């Protein structure tokens, strides 16, 4: 089945924090359809929805935004974007974060199963690769209907850092990042280009120092943490929201867009158990239309294996804690 709406699109945003509110604003500015903004905190989604609707009047945008604490209003949604959960806070262990966000994912999954089982679902909640795995488990969605937002954001960060380093337009830079959404992600240097030249070729030509490339890769891996350290309180939300909207538009408008996203794998890319991992994915009106397996260098595969192991450990933790 295709996820293209016959009438006006309906987009459900689960979580009305910084990312959820930004998602709602982007949906409004792009006039993507009617929006349901859900959060468990009373008043938060209602207040943001009211503020956003008043801004819509200035631009003569005729979509609606409903703020609610009741899951029943997500019924019939074409797209669901999940940002609900807690960021990791000082003193919080990984088990603490998994316990909190896994409980939330189970609740959200049950709501999706009840009210919009044909929706295309984009998960943004961290730890991303484990949370999208659990969200599929609790919702029962088929593989083509659910994905994690990771590689789109990571690739965008890498692309910006490259453009800034070379002092060129972002239009002249292509970048691609695979793997789990975390410190073990794998930027692909032979498939990332500046002015049409691969990063590896730039190193060979002497237009990019090898240590500068290593620093750019490391900055990409720590991109989210860099923003957390600067903000002191909270984490990135503009770029994550824009990344999720990019994915939603690819499905709503049948774009057949190639992105890096956390898709369900079984045996490709060296995985040994089913998991979600950032890989090249074509998104269309079918949802996940296909996954493309790229040839990797020995070093890239070794780095990806580290990322795979990190995701396996997260899934094992979910099993140990009784969520799966």
Write structural notes for this entry.
- By secondary structure, the protein is an alpha/beta fold.
- Helices cover 44% and strands 18% of the residues.
- It has ten helices and 14 strands.
- The strands form four sheets. It has a six-stranded parallel beta sheet. A three-stranded antiparallel beta sheet has the order 7-10-11. It has a three-stranded antiparallel beta sheet with strand order 12-13-14.
- The mean pLDDT is 93.
Count the E strands.
14
Question: What is the approximate shape?
Answer: globular
Low-confidence stretches: none
What is the strand arrangement across the widest sheet? 3-2-1-4-5-6
Distance between the termini: 28 Å
Q: What Rg, in angstroms, do the CA atoms define?
A: 19 Å
Give the mean pLDDT.
93
- Binned, the helix content reads 40-55%
Q: What's the number of helices?
A: 10
Derived structural class: alpha/beta
**In percent, how much strand structure appears in the residues?**
15-25%
Largest sheet: 6 strands, parallel
Q: What is the ordering of alpha helices and beta strands? A: EHEHEEHEHEHEEEEEHHHHEEEH
């Amino acid at each position: 089945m295709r996820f293209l709406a016959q009438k006006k699109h309906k987009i459900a945003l689960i979580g009305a924090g910084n990312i959820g509110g930004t998602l709602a604003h982007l949906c409004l500015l792009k006039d993507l359809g009617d929006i349901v903004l859900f959060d468990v905190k009373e008043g938060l989604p209602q207040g943001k929805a009211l503020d956003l609707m008043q801004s819509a009047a200035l631009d003569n945008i005729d979509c609606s935004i409903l703020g609610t604490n009741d899951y029943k209003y997500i019924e019939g949604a074409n797209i669901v974007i999940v940002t609900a959960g807690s960021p990791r806070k000082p003193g919080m262990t990984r088990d603490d974060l998994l316990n909190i966000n896994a409980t939330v994912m189970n609740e959200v999954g049950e709501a999706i199963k009840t009210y919009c089982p044909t929706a295309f679902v984009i998960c943004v909640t961290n730890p991303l690769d484990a949370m999208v795995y659990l969200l599929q488990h609790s919702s029962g969605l088929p593989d083509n209907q659910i994905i994690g937002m990771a590689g789109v954001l990571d690739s965008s960060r890498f692309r910006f850092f490259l453009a800034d380093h070379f002092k060129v337009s972002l239009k002249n830079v292509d970048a691609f990042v695979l793997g789990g959404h975390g410190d073990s992600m794998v930027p692909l240097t032979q498939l990332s280009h500046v002015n049409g030249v691969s990063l590896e070729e730039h190193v060979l030509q002497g237009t990019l120092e090898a240590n500068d490339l290593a620093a750019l890769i490391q900055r990409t891996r720590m991109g989210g943490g860099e923003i957390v350290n600067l903000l002191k309180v909270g984490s990135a939300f503009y770029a994550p929201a824009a990344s999720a909207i990019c994915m939603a538009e690819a499905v709503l408008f049948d774009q057949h867009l190639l992105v890096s996203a956390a898709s369900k794998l079984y045996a490709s890319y060296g995985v040994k158990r089913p998991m979600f991992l950032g890989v090249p994915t074509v998104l269309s009106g079918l949802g996940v239309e296909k996954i493309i397996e790229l040839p990797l260098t020995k070093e890239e595969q070794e780095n990806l294996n580290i990322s795979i192991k990190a995701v396996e450990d997260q899934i094992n933790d979910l099993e140990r804690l009784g969520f799966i």
